Amino acid sequence: MSQEKPTIVNCPQCGIPVVWGDVSPFRPFCSKKCQLIDLGEWADEEKRIAGAPDMSDSDGWSEDN
């Protein structure tokens, strides 16, 4: 029998190698601390997913004709 090599990823917060499996409950993070730091950055809108810009009245768009 051949044992498969575990998948290793770097923690997106601190860069420490993390085994992608049941032995790492906070994957892809190395710890609860890194997980919470990342969550806080999303909550503070320091991180965001790029998308289309908002259409607002300042862009010359209006529901009124």
Automatic annotation (TrEMBL):
Its cofactor is Zn(2+). InterPro entries: DNA_gyrase_inhibitor_YacG, Znf_NHR/GATA. Inhibits all the catalytic activities of DNA gyrase by preventing its interaction with DNA. Acts by binding directly to the C-terminal domain of GyrB, which probably disrupts DNA binding by the gyrase. Transmembrane segments: none annotated. Binds 1 zinc ion. GO terms for molecular function: DNA topoisomerase type II (double strand cut, ATP-hydrolyzing) inhibitor activity; zinc ion binding. SUPFAM superfamilies: Glucocorticoid receptor-like (DNA-binding domain). GO terms for biological process: regulation of DNA-templated transcription. Belongs to the DNA gyrase inhibitor YacG family. It comes from Grimontia indica. Interacts with GyrB. Residues 56-65 have a biased composition (Acidic residues). It holds the Pfam family YacG. HAMAP family: DNA_gyrase_inhibitor_YacG. Residues 45-65 are annotated as: Disordered. Zn(2+) binds at C11, C14, C30, C34. The gene is yacG. This is DNA gyrase inhibitor YacG. Keywords: Metal-binding, Zinc.
